[in-house]
Amino acid sequence: MTDITPAEDGFAFDCADGTGGVASKVLLATGIVDDLPDIAGVGDLYGVSVHHCLYCDGFEYVGKPVAALGKGDKGADLAVMMKHWIADVVACSDGTEVSGDAARKLKQHGIPLRSEPVVALEGTRGLLTKIKFKSGPDLERSGLFFSTGCHQASDLSLRLGCVRDEKGGVITDPATEETSVPGVYVAGDVSRDVLLVSIAIAEGAKAAVAINKAFLRRDGFCD
After folding, report:
1. Do the beta carbons of residue 71 and residue 96 sit within 8 Å?
2. Using a CB cutoff of 8 Å and minimum separation of 24, what contacts does 39-47 make?
3. Mean per-residue pLDDT for 66-75?
């Protein structure tokens, strides 16, 4: 879908193949895109030994040396989370300073900090072996988790006028499951709630039921 606009009978939409039409209701499940660190070597390792989701892949690194990467306090905060079940964690702030509070937490949990800019990641067959810095020694690691943010994969919700929260997620009404635009629903990472496949499936089911109930009310089958 390339465009969608409110119409008299719902929403007019256009697709990339030139087709279009009118929909009574719209369910947006366009997801988000993770912002990969702009560091040499990330592309060859991402999804194998470099990850964005600690909850999805952290369990694989129990007993292994890992690093948490993020500017300022982002990397430090992620490192503290990782320390809960991974013993050997190093925080990397990639050329930026961390706050005094973050530094205190790192010290409290015995987490070293490397603040030098990261210039490259090295590994073979997708497996990370070391992190290279602009200065100082290389850091041998088996895995790296990063906190660099993400963004909506589509601007359709913005063009429709859906209200978003401070994270950029589309806000929904807990009673109707609709967004701030009547007739528009969302499911999955568009909402920026809990970013897990299982949650996305559940949100899709809830939205489908809400849409069906809206049709039943519209057609006089229920109050």
Report:
1. yes
2. 39/118, 39/119, 39/120, 39/121, 40/119, 40/120, 40/121, 41/120, 41/121, 41/122, 41/123, 42/121, 44/123, 44/126, 45/121, 45/123, 45/126, 45/127, 45/128, 45/144, 47/126
3. 97
With b for 16 or more beta-carbon neighbours within 10 A and e for fewer, the 87-104 pattern comes to ebbbbbbbeeebeeebee
| Widest CA span in the chain | 71
**Where do the domains of the chain lie, and which CATH numbers do they carry?**
22-33+152-218 (3.50.50.60), 38-146 (3.50.50.60)
Rounded-to-10 torsion of CA 195, 201, 206, 211: 110
Average pLDDT on 111-128 reads 97
Q: What is the mean pLDDT of residues 121-136?
A: 97
pLDDT at 168 over 90: no
DSSP 94-113: TT-PPPHHHHHHHHHTT--E
Q: Which among 45, 28, 54 is positioned nearest to 152, based on CA atoms?
A: 28
* Residue 68 or residue 195, greater confidence: 68
How does 60-85 read in b/e, with b if 16+ C-beta sit within 10 Å? Answer: ebeeebbbbbbbebbbbbbbbbbbee
The answer to whether 157 and 179 have CB atoms below 8 angstroms apart is yes
Helix/strand/coil (H/E/C) assignment for every residue in 16-34: CCCCEEEECCEEECCCEEE
CB 41 within 8 A of CB 69: no
